[in-house]
């Protein structure tokens, strides 16, 4: 068998480029160095003057988190694939002889960022990059939320009652190892979906209510570029509508219109938007025990054409990055959802740049 050399590796990388290496496109378009100040501040590594092995470069470690999120990988699987794939090595700037961070190192890095609450700052840093590239929030904004599944908890009725009351069950407090594996923040809720057509062609008049356990991702995108501009992670039982008044509306958008479904329709929200200078395009609800007036049906249908764009964001996240919370607790869930939002904006940024280059 012929022994491979340097030029053989270069030829293989050139072939990967020709086949459309997504990670190479990321490296070419996204300047990951912009994240360094926030990473350094969050990690607060020692300068190495006291000896010991120096930590891996924080930008390198953050790019590994991007790989994980982009490909929906576990820490162990990520370690294997970085060692196995030339495209991953090139994206990370690693050579065949370079040391690759192991799964434990990546876990500790992510834990340190999570504890520092750095994901919001990292998201804002990339949002500033998007704005500097000319992608300002424009043409109004669209709000929505999606459920994000988490591993189901097997709790007794007494334990559930304690959790709902905001208490830690006594048995968990006596067993720290058990407590560390119990998610006290995720909640059960009902997910409503349209009933499927029956064999005789009829459709049931009632929707299906499916129990769901986990968290909820709330986002606001701009209508023009469909980039995520505001976001928040909560438990699955949190009301969508109340979040509008908390932190989802973006006052820097060049237009004042706000689109959202009927979950966001309330007098409190309408009054809030009017006082803040926003124009409500929120869907109107069907009158109780009365048919929907024709003019409201037509108005809602027109709004749906625009509002549905936010559904594409969630579909992209769940199909491309397999959005799912494998960790325990709202803090780690926020880290997972925040990374998914950053990676979505990066992928969207790549698409917008390609469109502009082809124009």
Verbal overview:
- The chain has 359 residues and is α/β, with parallel strands linked by helices.
- Helix content is 47%, strand content 13%.
- The protein is built from 15 helices and 6 strands.
- The chain has helices spanning 6-18, 22-29, 36-43, 58-71, 75-84, 86-92, 103-115, 119-132, 157-164, 170-173, 176-179, 267-276, 294-307, 309-320, 330-358, and strands spanning 141-149, 187-193, 208-222, 228-235, 257-260, 279-282.
- Strands 1, 2, 3, 4, 5 and 6 form a 6-stranded mixed β-sheet that branches.
- The termini are far apart.
- The model has no long low-confidence stretch (mean pLDDT 87).
Topology (elements, then pairings):
Blueprint: H1 6-18, H2 22-29, H3 36-43, H4 58-71, H5 75-84, H6 86-92, H7 103-115, H8 119-132, E1 141-149, H9 157-164, H10 170-173, H11 176-179, E2 187-193, E3 208-222, E4 228-235, E5 257-260, H12 267-276, E6 279-282, H13 294-307, H14 309-320, H15 330-358
Parallel strand pairs: 1-5, 5-6
Antiparallel strand pairs: 1-3, 2-3, 3-4
Helix pairs in contact: 2-6, 4-15, 5-6, 5-7, 7-15, 8-15
Features:
359 residues; alpha/beta
Approximately how much beta-strand content do the residues carry? Answer: 5-15%
Coarse shape:
globular
Structural class: alpha/beta
Beginning-to-end CA distance, first to last residue: 48 Å
SSE topology string: HHHHHHHHEHHHEEEEHEHHH
Oligomer: single chain
Could you name the ranges where pLDDT drops below 50 across 5 or more consecutive residues? Answer: none
User: Major sheet, described briefly?
Assistant: 6 strands, mixed
Q: Mean of the pLDDT scores?
A: 87
Number of strands: 6
Report Rg. 23 Å
User: What's the number of helices?
Assistant: 15
Helix content: 40-55%
């Amino acid at each position: 068998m012929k022994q491979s050399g340097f030029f053989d590796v270069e030829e293989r990388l050139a072939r990967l480029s020709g086949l459309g290496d997504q990670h190479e496109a990321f490296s070419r378009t996204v300047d990951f160095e912009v994240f360094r100040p926030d990473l350094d501040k969050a990690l607060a590594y020692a300068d190495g003057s006291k000896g010991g092995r120096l930590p891996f470069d924080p930008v390198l470690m953050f790019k590994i988190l991007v790989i994980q999120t982009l490909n929906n990988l576990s820490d162990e699987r990520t370690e294997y694939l970085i060692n196995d794939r030339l495209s991953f090595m090139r994206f990370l700037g690693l050579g065949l002889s370079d040391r690759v961070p192991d799964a434990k190192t990546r876990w500790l890095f992510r834990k340190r960022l999570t504890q520092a609450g750095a994901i919001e700052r990292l998201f804002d840093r990339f949002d500033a990059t998007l704005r500097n590239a000319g992608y300002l929030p424009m043409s109004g904004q669209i709000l929505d939320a999606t459920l994000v599944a988490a591993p189901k908890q097997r709790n007794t009725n007494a334990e559930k009652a304690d959790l709902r009351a905001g208490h830690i069950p006594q048995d968990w407090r006596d067993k720290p190892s058990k407590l560390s594996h119990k998610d006290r923040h995720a909640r059960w809720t009902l997910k409503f979906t349209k009933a499927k057509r029956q064999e005789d062609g009829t459709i049931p008049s009632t929707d299906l209510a499916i129990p769901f356990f986990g968290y909820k991702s709330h986002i606001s995108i701009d209508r023009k570029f469909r980039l995520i501009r505001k976001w928040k992670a909560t438990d699955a039982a949190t009301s969508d509508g109340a979040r509008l008044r908390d932190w989802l509306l973006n006052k820097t958008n060049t237009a004042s219109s706000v689109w959202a479904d009927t979950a966001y329709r309330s007098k409190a929200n309408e009054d809030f938007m009017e006082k803040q200078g926003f124009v409500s395009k929120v869907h109107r609800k069907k009158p109780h025990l009365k048919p929907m007036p024709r003019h409201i049906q037509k108005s809602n249908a027109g709004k749906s054409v625009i509002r549905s764009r936010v559904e594409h964001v969630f579909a992209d996240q769940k199909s491309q990055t397999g959005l799912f919370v494998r960790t325990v607790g709202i803090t780690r869930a926020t880290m997972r959802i925040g990374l998914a939002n950053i990676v979505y904006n990066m992928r969207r940024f790549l698409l917008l740049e390609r469109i502009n280059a082809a124009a």
